[in-house]
Amino acid sequence: MAQNAELAVARRETSGKEAARSLRRLGKLPGVLYGRGRETEPITIDAMAFQRLLSKGGASSKLFDISVDDGKPVQALIRELQRNPLRPEDILHVDLYEVHAGEQIQLSVPIHLEGSPAGVRNDGGVLDQALRELDIKVLPRNIPQAVDLDVTDLNIGDALYVRDIRLVDVEILNDPDIAICSVVAPRAVEEPVVAEEEGVEIEAEVEEAAEPELIRKPKAEEETEEQ
Fold first, then answer.
1. CATH classification of the domain holding 194
2. What is the separation of C-alpha 195 from the centre of its chain, rounded to a whole number of angstroms?
3. Is-contact 20 30, C-beta < 8 A?
4. pLDDT at 156
């Protein structure tokens, strides 16, 4: 289960784009803290401390103990990170959602594949992962940090589906028939075919289209306006 990380924040008195830029120049991130039964509260977060927490991975399922101006801690999840479209590593704004011990919440957790499939080891196959996050509904105390799936026994043509996942005290929201990963045969490399017709060489090449990667963004329970 995910372990709580401590995060100190401060109340924010200013709002607007120019004020947000000024905060970021000072090494602070503007954000909001909200939740059921709680008014939206503008906050600031130390940018370096927040980046260190994110670097440990599992940000979407990480549960934080939030202290506002050294007040009583509350539990919260990251609901949204707004990033600079030109420099995605730069965070512009943070939405934190307060959770309660007896309140189920919806979120996404990463799917990790463990092991080397038999079809890859023995037959030169390729492991293709189509689903990288699992949508779940769960009590805060039961949030898994990640879903680990063993792919060691998969041969060419085998696949793992959402229905193959077994989690305790967790409701899975994805369609059970969605494939998470599969082992496919190695793609054959076709040599160019050269034909001579009336002294002119005609070369035909076969091009393969890349398969799109499915990325599903977790749906927020509530929508808030940037303060």
1. 2.170.120.20
2. 50
3. yes
4. 96
Residues 14 and 87 in one domain: yes
- For 227, other C-beta atoms within 10 Å of its C-beta total 19
Residue 42: give the domain boundaries. Answer: 5-100
Domain tally, the chain: 2
Based on the domain organization, do 112 and 33 belong to the same domain? no
Taking a C-beta distance cutoff of 8 angstroms, is the pair 8, 52 a contact?
Answer: no
The tokens for 114 are: 């463990």
How far is 31 from 26, CA to CA, in rounded Å?
Answer: 15
Q: What are the φ/ψ torsions at residue 84 (nearest 5 degrees)?
A: -65, 120
CATH of the domain at 92: 2.40.240.10
User: Which pTM was predicted?
Assistant: 0.69
Average pLDDT estimate for 9-32 = 90
In the β-sheet with 179-184, what is the strand arrangement from edge to edge? 126-129, 179-184, 159-161
Backbone torsion region of residue 164, taken as left when φ is above 0, otherwise alpha when ψ lies between -120 and 50, otherwise beta: alpha
**Helix/strand/coil percent split, the chain, to 5:** 15, 40, 45
The predicted-structure confidence for 91-104, as pLDDT tens digits, reads as follows: 899 999 999 888 99
Backbone angles phi and psi of 162, in degrees to 5: -55, -35
